[in-house]
Specification:
The protein has about 120 residues and is mainly β. It is about 10% helix and about 40% strand. It has a single domain (about 10-120), classed as Sandwich (Hypothetical Protein Aq_1857, Chain: A).
Length: about 120
């Protein structure tokens, strides 16, 4: 299965992705795409289903798909999920070559900075 080099999905993220996919009627399939903006260059958007993407990660029965043109931006990204009694959400954990904002929802590749997406026509 093709995947972004270094894209990791934590156990807690896989469990929440699986729960959300099942509730949405697309068991085992979630879609991730990157949208411009936020505290850093890219913010994650997660939606249920396949949505014509390329498989980029698989963990605990869930396959995560993403647009093929965004694969190189996902290298070094780790997807995690944190929750408590007040709520929860997906967060990006920095890996090699990744800079995350303090809130954990946006990231930039260190080598290209905030202008990384301009080359992709965002």
């Amino acid at each position: 299965m093709p995947k972004a080099p270094g894209l990791r999905i934590s156990v807690t993220a896989a469990a929440e992705l699986g729960r959300q996919a099942a509730v949405a009627g697309t068991p085992g399939m979630m879609h991730l795409d990157l949208v411009a903006g936020g505290c850093e260059a890219w913010t994650l958007r997660l939606r249920p289903g396949h949505l014509a993407g390329t498989p980029v990660g698989r963990a605990d029965g869930i396959t995560l798909y993403a647009p093929a043109e965004q694969l190189q931006l996902l290298g070094g990204v780790a997807l995690d999920y944190r929750g408590d009694l007040t709520g929860g959400g997906f967060v990006v954990r920095p890996g090699e070559g990744i800079r995350c904002c303090a809130c954990g929802t946006a990231f930039s590749p260190r080598t290209t900075g905030r202008d990384a997406g301009r080359e992709m026509g965002r």
